[in-house]
Design goal:
With 182 residues, the chain is of the alpha+beta class. The protein has 2 domains: 64 residues, 434 Repressor (Amino-terminal Domain) (Orthogonal Bundle); 104 residues, Jelly Rolls (Sandwich), CATH 2.60.120.10. The chain is built from 5 helices and 10 strands. Helix 1 packs across helix 3.
Length: 182
């Protein structure tokens, strides 16, 4: 979405969530009702001054007005997502839902070729990893400790230490991983 489209969508969402009419918002912001209507329809290009009046009058952060709105439904076809990290014939990492400061999680899929491994460093204190083995057999090494997991198994662990995912099967190992941040 463009910045104007973001502002149009977010302004209307903020206004309706607060139960305010355009007349009330015009009174609170000092921006005319017709200009607010044009902004909400995406036909006006609001100046920095107008945006400042809206933010101040509605008592919201600028980010709330300009951020990309979250879609109610977000479909991510596997055949349209590219690996964010890849080592040929070793592994592929797909980022389905990357870090967002408004969310406390990330979701990845890692594919590891038979006999290969993927080494991951620490993700920082307070980060937890929720991992599920979709296909294959995993040997998870966290420092000196190892845990075997089979297809359908899941595990949760603190990711403040180096860890390694090792494919010990003859098929592609596919993992779904959710990182949770405190």
């Amino acid at each position: 979405m463009s910045l104007n489209a973001n502002i149009a969508y977010n302004l209307k969402k903020i206004r309706t969530a607060k139960g305010l009419s355009l007349d009330v918002v015009a009174e609170q912001t000092g921006v005319s009702k017709s200009m607010l209507g044009q902004i909400e329809r995406g036909v006006a290009n609001p100046s920095v001054s107008v945006i400042g009046k809206i933010v101040s009058g509605l008592r919201v952060e600028l980010d709330e007005l300009v951020k990309n709105p979250l879609e109610e439904l977000l479909y991510i076809p596997k055949n349209q997502i590219q690996p964010t990290k890849e080592l040929e014939n070793k592994y592929r990492v797909y980022t389905y839902f990357p870090y967002d400061k408004d969310k406390a999680f990330e979701i990845y899929v890692i594919e590891i070729f038979p006999g290969a491994s993927y080494l991951s460093g620490s993700h920082g204190e307070g980060t937890k990893e929720y991992l599920m083995v979709d296909t294959g057999s995993l040997k998870l090494r966290i420092e000196e400790r190892c845990q075997m997991l089979e297809s359908g198994d899941a595990i949760r662990f603190d990711t403040d230490k180096e860890h390694e995912y090792i494919n010990v099967s003859e098929e592609m190992l596919r993992l779904t991983i959710v990182f949770s941040f405190k």
